[in-house]
Design a protein that fits this description.
5 strands; Maf protein; CinA_C; 45% helix; Competence protein ComA; 6 helices; alpha/beta; CinA-like_C
């Protein structure tokens, strides 16, 4: 049986192959679920080269070049942080396109009052334009992570549909 994430990953892979683009991922709360779905799709090496799992602040700083000041000022779950995660993944991997995810899957939210289920996303395209989105998903941690995984890839498909 095909999971929703695998179906979306397969479609994303098809779009990336047609557009001759390589993708890199930077995941925090999803902990590699996006990479796993992409690796289960057909012809993965033709569109996906690398992924970074940066669950802690230190990993985001060391592996992706996220600024300590950004995290201290805005938190690890913020638009500013996912923008830097996406830029770091694209730059450090040499990929054409990147996507980044950071959020609070639950059961708790952030110390700043951000509710559980809040997830920030960023996608950097080959022209270096960065798009961001924040979503609030309902359900337990597993459900939030599944929804975030599918959304991250589906939104990139839509962005790439408009990308020449």
């Amino acid at each position: 049986m095909t999971t929703p994430s695998l179906s979306v990953a397969s479609e994303l892979g098809r779009v990336l192959v047609v557009k001759k683009l390589q993708l890199a991922t930077a995941e925090s709360c999803t902990g590699g679920l996006i990479a796993s779905a992409l690796c289960a799709a057909d012809d993965t090496p033709s569109f996906y080269g690398s992924g970074f799992i940066t669950y802690t602040d230190d990993a985001k700083i060391t592996m992706l070049g996220v600024s300590r000041d950004t995290i201290d000022t805005f938190t690890a779950v913020s638009e500013q942080t996912v923008r830097e995660m996406a830029a770091g993944a694209k730059q450090r991997s040499g990929a054409d396109v990147s996507l980044a995810v950071s959020g609070y899957a639950g059961p708790d939210g952030g110390e700043d009052g951000t509710p559980a289920g809040t997830v920030w996303f960023a996608w950097q395209l080959a022209d270096d334009e960065i798009h961001t989105s924040v979503k609030r998903f309902d359900g337990d941690s597993e459900s939030v992570l599944a929804q975030a995984t599918s959304y991250a890839m589906a939104a990139l498909i839509l962005l790439l549909a408009e990308y020449v």
